[in-house]
Amino acid sequence: MSSSPEARPSSLQRLAQVLPYYVSRTDSHVSRINRLISTSSTLDTTLLTVTYTLHLLHALLNRITTLRLSIAAKSLDNFFAQLPYALPPSSTFFATLTPSPTSHLFRLTTSTAALAALIDDVRIFLRLGGLISIYTWGASTYRSPPQDRVLRSIAWGQIGACALFQYLENGAYLGSKGVFAFGSEKVNRWYVWSSRFWMAHVVLEFGRLARQWSISREEPASKDVKSERQGDEVNNGQILARREEEDREWWKQVYVNAAWLPVTVHYGSESGLVGEAQLALLGLVAGVVGIRDAWRATS
Fold it and tell me: For the chain (length 299 residues), average pLDDT per consecutive 10?
């Protein structure tokens, strides 16, 4: 007598088996996202990454729209060239080609631009209290200044640059909202000058990183040699691992700062420097690095 084949589990049974796993994974990710946006710094990093992604998407959609209009213009030109009757050589046709407001591409392009502008506005609004953080930074530096004279001077220069940046940006933002009686020309001028002080901070950051690199190549040598003499192979491995981690962190800051420099020059210029796509890619360098570190910290 042959045994009956085992009944295969139904779709509902299979779902009941895998559902707890996916619920657990979803709960874990949602909890990490909640921790990611629970502090002002990580929230700004998240919004920064999202808005530059949207700016990049908007630039690509604009490029597609332009390409489609170019193809349509060539088709129209070919149509007139193939007409059965001759046209006077001096005849000139003018045609205005615009994307249809009802097309999916047009609506997606405008929606992407609107959402990016909204997030940009939210980020500036959230920075209105930035002067308080800068004051705290200055007070902490005053109480515990860097021992190195060059780093100490750079720190105070960065504090001053950030304070002026935040003051001017706050004034320009509130003026643009009608809180202050600023005309559009004054608002734009204040935004430009705030970006120039942001640029000053970025330039000083390069100086800080260069000085930090110089010090790390001078002081740790004697300290680590002393530790290696007193320690064992395990301690020596820890020293090498710490050096590698410090070098990775240093290079990461260099890459982020190098990406921010042309962004600050762009916003600090009256006419701009780069296009939307290039600006978005530069901003995403800083955004991706920051969001990756912040995401790891939530685990």
Answer: 57 71 77 80 90 95 80 63 58 58 80 96 95 96 95 98 98 96 95 97 97 82 52 66 86 95 94 91 93 83
- Contact assessment for residue 27 and residue 35, using Cβ atoms and an 8 Å cutoff: no
Rounded Cα–Cα distance for residues 74 and 91 (Å):
17
Check if the beta carbon of residue 218 is closer than 8 Å to that of residue 178. Answer: no
Cβ proximity of 254 and 210 under 8 Å: no
- Residues 232 and 239: their CA atoms lie apart, in Å, by 11
Q: Provide the whole-model pTM.
A: 0.79
Q: In the structure encoding, which two tokens stand for residue 38, read together?
A: 């629970």
- How far, CA to CA in Å, does 207 sit from each of 16, 147, 202, 280, 291? 59, 16, 9, 25, 25
How many Cα atoms occupy the beta-carbon half-sphere of 159 within 13 Å?
18
Token code pair at residue 56: 């990049």
CA 189 to CA 179: how far, in whole Å?
A: 17
Closest CA to 286 of 120, 116, 128, 51: 51
Q: What is the pLDDT of residue 29?
A: 77
Longest dimension (CA), the chain: 97
* CB atoms closer than 10 angstroms to residue 147: 8
> Tokens 């709960």, residue?
27
C-alpha distances in Å from residue 123, one per residue of 11, 51, 85, 126, 173: 46, 10, 60, 5, 11
For 260, the 3-state DSSP assignment is: helix
> d(Cα 196, Cα 169) in Å, to the nearest integer?
11
Q: How far apart are CA 279 and CA 55, in angstroms?
A: 8
Distances (CA, A) of 256 to 156, 249, 261, 287: 21, 11, 9, 9
Give CA–CA dist 289/272, Å, rounded: 25
